[in-house]
Structures are given as structure tokens and as C-alpha cells.
Design brief:
The complex is a heterodimer of chains A (510) and B (662). Chain A has 510 residues and is mainly alpha-helical. Helix content of chain A is 72%, strand content 3%. Chain A has 23 helices and two strands. Chain B has 662 residues and is mainly alpha-helical. In chain B, helix 10 runs antiparallel to helix 14 and helix 16 runs parallel beside helix 20. The longest helix of chain B has 51 residues. The chains are: A mainly alpha (510), B mainly alpha (662).
Chain lengths: 510, 662
């Protein structure tokens, strides 16, 4: 790539486009936004193609001293690369999803989305602690506006709730960051990732970061902002919220909490496990009784994100890689599910499940794609989510079989609420005349859902494309965690082996 | 040796094209494509199977694609072919090809035919992936894939609420089994650091006697691993406790019941136990559990089968019961016998289901046997096929003459080997022999109610709709003028081919399956000693199955031909016992009460009282409330009245002075 500052360009393109959109009328703003996001997608592909797997840990680094030790430092490893790819992949789809649904203040809306893209790429690419903080927290603002201005009936309440929750955590995180910089004498994230904080300090730092990431994740019981935010947000807002913003918490854990405070992470493993187990079971049960499509999928997101936190805190390679794969898979699948909701919401303007039914008859193509994404959400092998869930749960099992058992019950409950949802929307008789008259997918909607469907299957059948870039980084993290990793509960004790058999190779005890 | 690639992927390709392009290419093209793909796969499978029979076949693994590499956990897409796979290949592709052909006739008037054929082919692909798996995760892929296809096909008539409910039930109940399967895979990986089946089987004996903690308790390692995996097998093969989905699955079109819920998918659990047999051999406890669960299911399902009126449900419970035979055969260590019964059962049970489908087709979709009767002369070809199927399942055969229908060979072998194995096997033998009596009873009951006696179908609403008559209008003519018609040749040809299987599959292949270690060639744990002992059992054991069959036949004849009022009297005599059996031991009601209702209730409580009533109330809304109240308070203090300011100042002053002085 030579000296071409590709990450900065990826930030600049949507930023410039965002400013342009503010001054353009609706039609032009849409075009500019689409063009900018597509350019970023292409740049992302270039980025991926040029990423040297097995090469340096941090690639495409850029550095510029600004003031007072505050650095503009960008650079990515495989983990960040994958999350950036997820963001730039979903952005054009979001713009496309808003094409006809948004009719008021289109320029501002597009600007908010483009700004969102800048901030998301920035979060994953930032190598400076404060730069990260700015990107991380600034992401609140466009989302707050998207919900608050273009949202549904009860948008103000949802926007405030969203803001209140997320702000609470971030204040604590900022204080912790100031302390860390003071202690370690650097704001460089790569350096801090290898810095050994005193165990006592780690505890407090970990808790401060946890407050922020747990809300972003969201973990039970600080998840209640998510259903409201999703329900009120416009379709594209939900897509980006579920697709990328929910991944910030997981990214935070994997970038900060685990490598910077390994001892504290191990110490608080039980807390994360406990909350995650509660989330899997409780939110799945709540999802079962929802009458609002978006709320149902929002609750299912909480359950899926709990698998991420479980995988991360399993302290082994499978857990970590599985967690990353769940994040990527869930980003695609929940995004697609919200798009599916959007498709019928745009037609009938209600999210109430009971108002639909029998859509397989009049919307067969829609039913097929919706089924695919439903099955992916259920974690059917061959789709993206299976790989992630399987690996994380396999990782969790190695740490603790009780936790693995409780978390795995999620596959039963998940199947129940998703199939129940699908049945009420797509199967049965056409009991509502207006729902029965809905037309099938338009070309635009095909173009939105088709690429996600392809990605979901790709990730399920050949996940190696996605695992390979992250492998070295995960291994590095695993080595860093090795010392702190708690012992698994399996405690295998060898017996004498089969009596009459000849000598066999001794099975490895782990 | 790459015909296996074609065998596995031709159905997938056909399924995708027919499924996504069905509307443009038309029904006929979709049907031709999928059926041709299946006959191709079938045509390529038999040579593989016969090469193993001849002893020239060699086990092979064809790699396809990398799947997952995560640390030391790696698993790839690969197609394994050995004797065990070859057996499954012919079963799956043969029955599937015939069911495809049969569906041409059965589904002729359905507007969604191409979708139906796409699902059937998709199912076949998933099933083939399951049996060719070289690692546990690919097996799980096939496992879930057949679950998906089963879900789609049970709910094929998606406008019917009962079909939708049954489809979800099948998927979710299977997921309960999958929970065990997944934990089993995780545990196996933890212990062996691999998911490769051959590697696990090789290392398993060395693990015997080791112990491990699972969910807070100490276990024998191999026992807990086998039991977890067996929970998965119980779900897929509808064993006692996780069987509730199978009878409901009859909501799907009948060809589906024949293919998925009789011949292939439900036998996946048996296949899994046989595939992992060297592993199960390391844990006598796990094998005992397999035996007991198998025997219990065998008996329990047979009792229910004797009381049901729906022709498909009778056969469904029969399937459940026959799967029990296979499991207890595996449990006593006779994996060859289990696979042999799987093999013969596939033919005669598919035959029975497809025959039942032909009856239902003839009877205008009436499935209640109370409204059949006297069909023998009206649909003679179907009758002949069903008769062969019934003789096969009831196991007619004479040991000393070495002649018998397919079921005779396999069922007799299972009973003999259980007796020979001793221990739990002896109990299983008695249970199995009694279940054989019940099998004979319910099978002949089905035949007598359907094909003998006088026509009763004017009582059927389906028929009444067809002929536009009420029973009163019809008067003495209990047919109501409705004339059942024989099915088209597309449906009769599969019946004919399967009849051949039901007649000869046992006779021809019994030597290979039961007595030939070289046939199995290490694909299963083959117990030479036990298979010899099987032939040494006393004569009365060898004839027990035949006697049971004859007794069952006699009672069925007595109750449903000779003295047709007897069943009602017996039912009244038995009272609550009859109700208990007729209501399927109240499993559905129990599960509804224990799991379904509490889940919804808990969901509502957690949502309204938990999320909204507690977290939101004291969380964000609470904060908002505090801020609001706080501001009201602050506002009231800043009233602008000089007097109140003075009062506050005075109070403050007093307070400060007090604090400073004391």
C-alpha cells in the first residue's frame, strides 16, 4: 500500500460527503450518501485484500502528533479489520434501506449516517486512547439524533433512555483512562495492551471500563434501553445499531479489558458469566412473549450478545474466536432481520406481529429470505451464526460446564421464539386483508437483502476467510491471558485404560 | 471414487435450482430435475454398497473444503465412505428416489409442487452429509440440516395451524436433543482435543476408567460423553421422553412421513450410536442406558399404537417402537443387528407409509381408520403391497426353513442376540418379544380395519364433502356412492419396488450384516463372540418372534373381524388404563404443563415485572424522577421572597455557629 493513508481516506470520504449532504436537497443527498458509502466499501475491500495475514500485528498505521501528547494515530489488526469490513458492508445497505422510507430532512439524515460511519471506522482504527474515546462517545450523537428526529411515536423517551444509559458508563471510563495515561505515561493503545497494571489498580480500571462496555453490549440488566431504541429507530437506524453499535462493547472488551487488565478480567469472570447466563435465559423468555417484531429481535440480540461475552471470558482461543464470529454473524443477521421487518413495516406501517400472517402466499421471495435469516439467527450449521456460537460455547465448556449448559439452552429458546415469530408472520391463513395485499420484494429490497444472504452463507460454509486475518491477534491475546486464565472445571483424571486392549496412544488431558 | 461427490451434491444442486427457480421453470421441470438427481445418486450408491458386500470396497475419505480452524479445534467438510456409510447411502438414496417418484402422483394437484420436491432433495442432501461425516461437527451439520428439512416439510401445508404447530414442535424438541449432542461434542473435544471421528474412536479405549467433572459432579469420562451424545440420538430418533414430536410430524404430506419419519432421518440416532460404537463400547453404563431406553420406547410406543385411529399415527408409533428395537440391539453390543433392522425397516416401513398414502389418496384424504373398511377389493394393488409390508413388520418367517420376510430376519436376530447377551439384554428380550406381539396386533388391526369388513366411509366428513351426501341420505349404502380408486402408476411402482425390498432384503443380506466381520471391516465395533452366541440360543427363543406374531394376529383377528364389539368392551373394562394409553400416556399434556406454559408465563413476568417494573422503574425512569423532583424542590426554595431567604440565612447561621462551637 506504500504510504497511502487509506484509513484516513476512509474517514475523510464519508465526512466530506456528510458535510455536502447538509447543503443538498433530498435526491442529491441520497446519491451522494450512497456513492460515499460505496466508495468506502471499495476501500474496505482494498484494505482487506492488502492486509498481510501473518504480517505485522498493526498494519496501515498512521501517526501525527497534535497537541499535548494527544496523537492522531490510526492502525488496524485483524480484529479491527473485520469489524471495519462489517461497518462498511452494512452502510450502503442502510442508505438503501432509507431510500424511500425517509422523506423529511433527508440531507441531515444522510449526514447523520455518514457521520456515524466516520465514527465507527474511527473507533475500530484508533490507536490512541483519547482518539478512541472521542470516536466511541461521539457515536452517541448521530444515533441519538437518528432516533430522536426520524424515530417513531415514542422517540423522545427512547432517545433519552439511550443517551442516559450510555453516558453513565462513559464518564467512569474517561476517569479510568486519565488515570491510566498518568500511570503508564502513554496514550498509545498498542503499548497499553502490553502494559502490566498493578492487580489492585486493574480491579478499579476494569470496573470502570466494564460500566461502559456492559451498557453498550448491552448486558443484562442494563439492556432495557435497547428494545426501546430499536422499536423507535427507523429501519436503517436499527440495522446499524444492531449491526455495528452493539459490537462496540465486545470490541472494547477484546481491545481493552482483556489485554490491559487480564488479572481483573479473570477475577470478575464470574460476574460476566452470571450476567450473561441470566441474559441468555431471561431475555430469550421475554422474546418469546413479544407482540412487537422489533422488540422481539431486540431482545434476541441481548441473548446473542451474551454468547459473545461468555466466549470472551472463557479465556481460550475457541471462546475468543467464537465471540468475534458471533459479533460478525450477528451483525449481518440481526441487521438483515431488521431489514426484513422494515420491508413489511414500510408497506403496512405497523410492527405488531398479529397484523400480519400468511405472507408466504403473497410474498414468497420475502418468505424465503426471511426464513434464511431466521435459520441463521437460530444458529443453523452452514450459516454464519453457527460457527460463532459453536466455537464460543465450545470455549465456554472448557472453562465451565455449568455455564456452557445454561448458555446452550439458548439454542432451544432461540429456536422457539424465532420460529414462533416466523410462523405468525409468514405462515397460516391470510387473515388480514391488507397484509394479504402486500406486494413482494422490489428490486431495491433484493439488492439490500441479497448481499447479506450471500455473506451469511459464505461465513457459514467457509469462515476461514474471516478467521484467518484474526488468528494471529487472537493467539497473541490468548497468550497474554494464559497466565491469568482460570482452571477449567473438567479436571480430567486418567484411568488405567481399556484392560484387554493393546497399547493405545494416550489421549491428551487438557 | 468420486461418485460420492455426485451422490451428495447432485440433490443439493437440484434442490437449489428447483427451489429458487421453480416458479420460472415450471413444476414439471422441477420434478424431472430433482427426481433425476435422486435416481442418479441412487444408481451410483448401489455399486458402492455392492462392492462392500463383495468385499472389494475400501473405506475412503474425500476432502471437500476447509471449514473451521480455531486454535487446535479444526474440522473440515469431507465425505467419508465405509461400510456403514454405504449401507446408509443405499437406504437414503433408494427410498428418497422412490419417494420422489411417488410424489409425482401424490402431490399432483398441489400448487406448490416444485417447492415440495426442492425440500425433499434438500433433505436428502443433508441426510447424506450426516452419514458421510468424518467429524462430529459435520455430522451435526447434517443433523440440523435434516431437522430444517423436516421442519419445512412437516409445515409444508403452511396454511394449516396444526401443521405449523407440529413443525415448530419437531424443531424445538429436536433442539432439546441437540443440546445434549452439542455438549457431547464439546466434552469430546475437551477430552480428546479433536472432533475427528476416527481419531476419537482410536483414543477412546485409553480413556476408559478416567473421570471428569461435569456440572459439578464427578463422572466416568466415557459414560458422560456417550450419554450426552445419546441425548441427541434420542431426540432425532424419537425415543421415550423426546418422542412427542414424531406423531405430530404426521401433519406433513405422507411421502414425507415415509422418507423422513420412517426410513431415514429418525434412524440417524441409531446410525450415530453405531458410528461411535467403539466409543460406546468403552462405557457399559452408557450401553445399559441405551438398552433400557430402547426397550422402554419399544414397548411404550407399541402400546399406544394399539389404540390409535389415525392410520398414519399408528405407523408413526410403530416406527418409534421399531427404533427402540434398533437401540436395544445396539445397547447389547449387536451393532450389526441394529443396522440390519435399520436397513430392512427402511424398506418395509417406507412401504407401509406409502401404502397408507395410497389409501389416503384413494379415500379423499380421510385418515381415520374407523371410516375405512372393505378396501381389499377396491384397491387390490395397494392392498397387496400393504399386506407384504405388514407381513414384513410383523416378522413372518420360519427359522428352520430359512425363509421369511425382511422384518423376520432382523427382528429375530435382535431378539436372539439380546437373549444371548444376557444381563440387561435378557430383560430387553422379554420386552422385545412382548412388543413383537403388540406390533403384530396393531399392524393387523390396521389391516383388518382398512381392508376387511364392510365399507364405513359415509361417516367420514371428507367423503361426505366429496359425494355431497349425509349418512342419512345415503341410507343402507354405507359407501355413499363413493368409489375409491387405485393410485396412478407413479405411486404404484415405488410400492412394487419396496415390496421387493420387504420380501427379500432380509434373506439376501442377513449373512453380510450379521455374520461377516469382513463386511463391516472396522466400520462398527463388531463383537464376533456375541454374534456366534446368537446362533446358539435355545430353539424356543428362535421361535418366540413367530409365536408372538401369531398370537398378535389371532387377537387382532378376534377383535376386528370375528367379534367386532370386543374392542369397545375391553376399552370399557380397562377404563382409566385405556384412557392413559389412548391419550399417549399424557406426555403432551405433561410437557405443556411443565415447560410450554411456564415459559410463556415466565416471559411475561420477566418482561412486565422485571424489565419494566424493576429495572426501568428504578433505573432510567427512577433517575428521571429523582432529577425532576430535585428540580421542583430547588425551584421552590428559590421563591424570590426576601423573608424566606432571611429565614434560611438565619437557620444556616444557627447551624454554622452550633457546629463551630460544639
Amino acid at each position: 500500500m506504500g504510504g497511502f493513508p487509506i484509513l484516513s481516506v476512509m474517514l475523510a470520504v464519508p465526512l466530506v460527503a456528510a458535510i455536502m449532504c447538509l447543503f443538498l436537497e433530498a435526491r442529491q443527498a441520497r446519491m451522494v450518501a450512497l456513492l460515499a458509502t460505496l466508495i468506502d466499501l471499495m476501500l474496505g475491500v482494498v484494505l482487506w485484500a492488502n492486509f498481510d495475514i501473518g504480517g505485522a500485528q498493526w498494519q496501515f498505521t498512521e501517526r501525527a502528533n497534535l497537541f499535548a501528547g494527544f496523537e492522531y494515530a490510526l492502525g488496524i489488526d485483524g480484529i479491527a479489520l473485520m469489524l471495519i469490513m462489517l461497518s462498511v458492508f452494512l452502510m450502503p445497505i442502510c442508505i438503501g434501506a432509507s431510500w424511500e422510507a425517509i422523506t423529511k430532512r433527508v440531507g441531515e439524515y444522510m449526514a447523520a449516517f455518514l457521520l456515524m460511519e466516520v465514527l465507527m471506522i474511527g473507533v475500530f482504527a484508533a490507536q490512541d486512547l483519547f482518539l478512541f474515546y472521542i470516536f466511541f462517545e461521539a457515536g452517541l450523537i448521530p444515533m441519538y439524533l437518528i432516533i430522536g428526529i426520524w424515530g417513531g411515536q415514542n422517540r423522545i423517551y427512547a432517545a433519552y433512555k439511550f443517551f442516559l444509559y450510555t453516558l453513565l458508563g462513559s464518564v467512569l471510563m474517561l476517569i479510568a483512562m486519565l488515570w491510566m495515561v498518568n500511570e503508564a505515561g502513554t496514550t498509545s493503545i498498542p503499548v497499553l495492551m502490553e502494559y502490566d497494571f498493578a492487580p489492585q489498580a486493574q480491579t478499579w480500571l476494569w470496573l470502570a471500563f466494564f460500566a461502559s462496555f456492559a451498557v453498550k453490549m448491552p448486558m443484562w440488566p442494563v439492556h432495557t434501553w435497547l428494545p426501546d431504541a430499536h422499536v423507535q429507530a427507523p429501519t436503517a437506524g436499527s440495522v446499524i445499531l444492531a449491526g455495528v453499535l452493539l459490537k462496540l462493547g465486545g470490541y472494547g472488551f477484546i481491545r481493552f479489558s482483556l489485554p490491559m487488565f487480564p488479572d481483573a478480567s479473570a477475577e470478575f469472570g464470574w460476574l460476566v458469566w452470571g450476567l450473561s447466563m441470566a441474559a441468555v435465559v431471561l431475555t430469550s423468555l421475554i422474546a418469546l412473549v413479544q407482540a412487537d417484531m422489533k422488540k422481539l429481535i431486540a431482545y434476541s440480540s441481548v441473548a446473542h450478545m451474551a454468547i459473545v461475552t461468555l466466549g470472551l471470558f472463557a479465556f481460550n482461543v475457541q471462546g475468543l474466536e467464537g465471540a468475534m464470529m458471533v459479533m460478525l454473524g450477528h451483525g449481518l443477521v440481526s441487521g438483515a432481520l431488521f431489514l426484513c421487518v422494515g420491508v413489511i413495516y414500510d408497506r403496512l406501517h405497523t410492527r405488531e406481529i398479529a397484523r400480519y400472517g400468511g405472507l408466504s402466499i403473497n410474498m414468497p421471495a420475502y418468505a424465503v429470505l426471511f426464513m434464511l435469516f431466521t435459520m441463521a439467527a437460530v444458529g443453523l450449521p452452514g450459516t454464519s451464526n453457527f460457527v460463532g456460537e459453536f466455537l464460543s460455547l465450545a470455549g465456554v465448556y472448557q472453562a465451565n460446564s455449568w455455564v456452557a449448559f445454561v448458555a446452550t439452552t439458548g439454542i432451544i429458546l432461540g429456536a422457539a421464539y424465532m420460529l414462533y415469530l416466523y410462523r405468525r408472520i409468514c405462515f397460516g391463513e391470510q387473515k388480514n386483508a391488507d397484509a394479504a395485499a402486500l406486494p413482494d420484494l422490489s428490486l431495491r429490497e433484493y439488492l439490500l437483502l441479497g448481499p447479506i444472504a450471500a455473506a451469511v452463507l459464505w461465513m457459514g460454509v467457509y469462515p476461514e476467510s474471516f478467521l484467518a486475518p484474526m488468528r494471529a491477534d487472537i493467539e497473541l491475546l490468548d497468550t497474554r491471558l494464559a497466565a491469568a486464565a482460570p482452571e477449567g472445571d473438567a479436571q480430567l483424571v486418567m484411568g488405567e485404560g481399556a484392560p484387554e486392549e493393546e497399547e493405545h496412544t494416550q489421549g491428551e488431558a487438557h | 471414487m468420486n461418485s460420492i461427490l455426485i451422490i451428495v451434491f447432485a440433490p443439493l444442486l437440484a434442490s437449489i435450482i428447483a427451489g429458487l427457480g421453480g416458479r420460472w421453470m415450471g413444476h414439471t421441470a422441477a420434478k424431472v430435475l430433482t427426481t433425476a438427481a435422486l435416481f442418479l445418486a441412487c444408481g451410483l450408491s448401489w455399486p458402492i454398497f455392492l462392492s462392500f458386500i463383495a468385499g472389494t470396497g475400501e473405506a475412503s475419505v474425500t476432502p471437500v473444503l476447509t471449514w473451521v480452524q480455531s486454535g487446535n479445534m479444526t474440522f473440515d467438510w469431507a465425505l467419508r465412505v465405509d461400510t456403514l456409510t454405504a449401507v446408509m447411502l443405499v437406504v437414503i438414496t433408494s427410498v428418497s428416489a422412490l419417494v420422489h417418484l411417488y410424489s409425482w402422483g401424490y402431490m399432483e394437484e398441489d400448487p406448490d409442487q416444485s417447492r415440495f420436491f426442492a425440500y425433499l432433495s434438500l433433505f436428502t442432501f443433508a441426510m447424506l452429509m450426516l452419514v458421510t461425516a468424518d467429524n462430529l461437527v459435520q455430522m451435526f451439520f447434517g443433523w440440523e440440516g435434516v431437522g430444517l428439512a423436516s421442519y419445512l416439510l412437516i409445515g409444508f401445508w403452511y396454511k394449516k395451524p396444526s401443521a405449523n404447530a407440529a413443525a415448530i414442535k419437531a424443531f424445538v424438541v429436536n433442539r432439546v436433543g441437540d443440546l445434549g449432542f452439542m455438549l457431547g461434542i464439546f466434552g469430546t473435544f475437551l477430552v480428546f482435543q479433536t472432533t475427528s471421528i476416527p481419531e476419537i474412536l482410536e483414543m477412546a479405549p485409553a480413556m476408559q476408567g478416567s473421570t471428569i467433572t461435569f456440572m459439578g459432579a464427578r463422572w466416568d469420562t466415557m459414560t458422560i460423553l456417550c450419554l450426552l451424545l445419546f441425548v441427541g440420538a434420542m431426540g432425532k430418533s424419537a425415543q421415550l421422553g423426546l418422542h412427542t414430536w414424531l406423531p405430530d410430524a404426521m401433519e406433513g404430506p405422507t411421502p414425507v412421513s415415509a422418507l423422513i419419519h420412517a426410513a431415514t432421518m429418525v434412524t440417524a440416532g441409531v446410525f450415530m450410536v453405531c458410528r461411535l460404537s467403539p466409543m460406546f463400547e468403552t462405557s457399559p453404563t452408557a450401553l445399559a442406558v441405551v438398552t433400557i431406553v430402547g426397550a422402554a420406547t419399544c414397548l411404550f410406543a407399541a402400546t399406544i399404537g394399539t389404540t390409535q385411529w389415525d392410520i398414519k399415527r399408528v405407523i408413526a408409533y410403530s416406527t418409534c417402537s421399531q427404533l427402540g428395537y434398533m437401540f436395544f440391539a445396539a445397547g447389547v453390543g449387536a451393532y450389526g443387528a441394529a443396522m440390519f433392522h435399520l436397513f430392512t425397516h427402511a424398506f418395509f416401513k417406507a412401504l407401509l407409509f406409502l401404502g397408507a398414502g395410497a389409501v389416503i389418496h384413494a379415500m379423499h384424504h380421510e385418515q381415520d381408520m374407523r371410516y375405512y373398511g372393505g378396501l381389499r377389493k377396491r384397491i387390490p394393488i395397494t392392498f397387496a403391497a400393504m399386506l407384504i409390508g405388514t407381513l414384513a413388520i410383523t416378522g413372518l418367517g420360519i427359522y428352520d426353513l430359512h425363509v421369511g420376510f425382511a422384518g423376520f430376519w432382523s427382528k429375530d436376530a435382535i431378539l436372539e442376540v439380546s437373549y444371548a447377551a444376557g444381563g440387561h439384554g435378557t430383560g430387553a428380550f422379554w420386552v422385545g418379544a412382548f412388543a413383537a406381539l403388540l406390533t403384530s396386533f396393531y399392524s393387523w388391526r390396521l389391516m383388518f380395519l382398512t381392508f376387511w369388513g364392510k365399507p364405513r366411509w359415509i361417516e367420514s366428513e371428507h367423503i361426505q364433502h366429496s359425494v355431497h351426501k349425509t349418512p342419512e341420505e345415503a341410507g343402507a349404502d354405507t359407501t355413499g356412492g363413493y368409489h375409491p380408486h387405485e393410485s396412478p402408476w407413479t405411486m404404484l411402482v415405488p410400492l412394487g419396488v419396496l415390496s421387493l425390498g420387504a420380501l427379500f432384503a432380509g434373506q439376501v443380506f442377513s449373512g453380510s450384516f450379521l455374520d461377516s466381520a469382513s463386511f463391516w471391516n472396522g466400520a462398527i465395533a463388531y463383537n464376533e463372540h456375541l454374534m456366534h452366541a446368537m446362533h446358539e440360543v435355545p430353539k424356543w427363543v428362535k421361535y418366540s418372534a413367530l409365536v408372538a406374531m401369531l398370537v398378535g394376529l389371532f387377537f387382532a383377528w378376534l377383535a376386528y373381524i370375528r367379534r367386532t364389539d370386543l374392542p369397545r368392551q375391553v376399552a370399557q373394562q380397562l377404563g382409566p388404563i385405556y384412557d392413559f394409553v389412548y391419550n399417549k400416556w399424557y406426555f403432551d399434556e405433561l410437557y405443556n404443563l411443565l415447560f410450554v406454559k411456564p415459559a410463556f408465563w415466565l416471559g411475561r413476568v420477566l418482561w412486565k415485572k422485571g424489565d419494566e417494573g424493576t429495572i426501568d422503574r428504578f433505573g432510567p425512569n427512577g433517575v428521571a424522577w429523582v432529577v425532576e423532583r430535585g428540580s421542583v424542590l430547588a425551584k421552590s426554595v428559590q421563591s424570590g421572597y426576601l423573608t424566606s431567604y432571611a429565614l434560611i440565612m438565619l437557620l444556616g447561621l444557627v447551624a454554622v455557629i452550633t457546629w463551630v462551637l460544639f
